[in-house]
Amino acid sequence: MIIIPSLLRPALLCVAVALTACTPSDSVTRSSIYDPHEGQNREIHEFNKEVDRFLLSPASNGYGSIFPDEIRGLFSNFADHLSLPNDVINNTLQGNLPEAGSTAARFVLNTIFGFAGFVDTVGEFGMPRHDTDFGETLYVWGADEGAYVELPFFGPSTTRDSIGMMVDVIMDPFFVVVREPTRYIGGVAYVVNAMGDRYDYDATIDSILYESADSYAQARILYLQNRRHELGMTSEDSALDPEFDPYEDPYADF
C-alpha cells in the first residue's frame, strides 16, 4: 500500500469527492456498462493475469498447502478485524449510526475477547458485521459509478470505487495513528488474506481467467453485477442478465 503524508490526506479527500462529482452523468448510467478505456483495461487485465499465473497463484497454493483451514481462518479474521475502523467511519458518513455503533462494539469486543481479532468471538454470538467502504459512501452521496477500470494488481473496479479505495487507504486509522513499522501490518494482512481467498476459490478463478472465451468481458460483467447487487441495485436497474453464464463463449452465435 502507498503511504501518503498526513498533511495531504484532507486535500486528497476533497479531490476525490470533487472528481466523482465531475463524472459526466449523461454518459454514465446505472443501467449500462461504460468502458471507454477498454483497450487500456485489456492490457492491464493481461498484466494481472500474468501476475496471477506466475506470482499469486503459486504463492497461494504454497500458502494453502502449508497452513490448514483453521489457521487460514484465523488470518482471515484478523484481516477483517483490521478493516473494522474504516467500516465505522464509512457507516457514519453514510448516516448509518446504529451500524457504526455496532461495528465499533464489534471491534472493541473482538480486540479484547477475540485475541486481537484472530477469533470472531462476537460473530459466534450472532452479532453481524456491517461491511462497507468509501466507494459505497460515494454511492450513498449520489456519485455516479463512472467508467469501468481494471487496476494493476487489484483487478476490476470503477472510477467511483477506485477513488473510494484510495480514500479508504488514506483515511485508514492504522496509517493515521499507528507508527512504523506496525502501520504496515494491515497491508501484510491484506496480502495474506488475498492469498487465502485465491486458494479457496482456485477452481472458479482459474475457470474465469484461463478457460473462458473472453476473460476480460467475464470478469467485467461479474464484477459489475456483484458490486451493483452489494449496493442494493436490482438486476432490472443494472440491466445485467441474471442468467449470465461466465463460462459461455460470447462469440458462439457468430
What does this structure look like?
With 254 residues, this protein is mostly helical. It is built from 13 helices and 2 strands, in the order αααααααββαααααα. Strands 1-2 form a two-stranded antiparallel ribbon. Helix 1 packs antiparallel against helix 8 and helix 7 (134-140) crosses helix 8. The protein starts with 8 loop residues before the first helix and ends in a 16-residue tail after the last helix. Residues 1-31, 235-247 and 249-254 have low confidence and may be disordered.
Strands, helices and their partners?
Elements: H1 9-21, H2 38-66, H3 69-82, H4 84-93, H5 97-113, H6 121-124, H7 134-140, E1 148-151, E2 155-158, H8 159-170, H9 173-176, H10 185-200, H11 202-211, H12 215-230, H13 235-238
Antiparallel strand pairs: 1-2
Helix pairs in contact: 1-8, 2-10, 3-10, 4-5, 7-8, 11-12
Order of helices and strands: HHHHHHHEEHHHHHH
The major pleated sheet works out as:
2 strands, antiparallel
- Count the domains: 1
The residue-averaged pLDDT reads 82
Q: Using DSSP, what is the number of strands? A: 2
Query: Would you tell me the structural class of the helices and strands?
Result: mainly alpha
For the termini, the CA-CA separation is: 44 Å
C-alpha geometry: globular
Uncertain residue ranges: 1-31, 235-247, 249-254
Order of strands side by side in the largest beta sheet?
Answer: 1-2
Q: In what range is the share of β-strand residues? A: under 5%
Q: Helix tally?
A: 13
Helicity range: 55-70%
Gyration radius, rounded: 19 Å
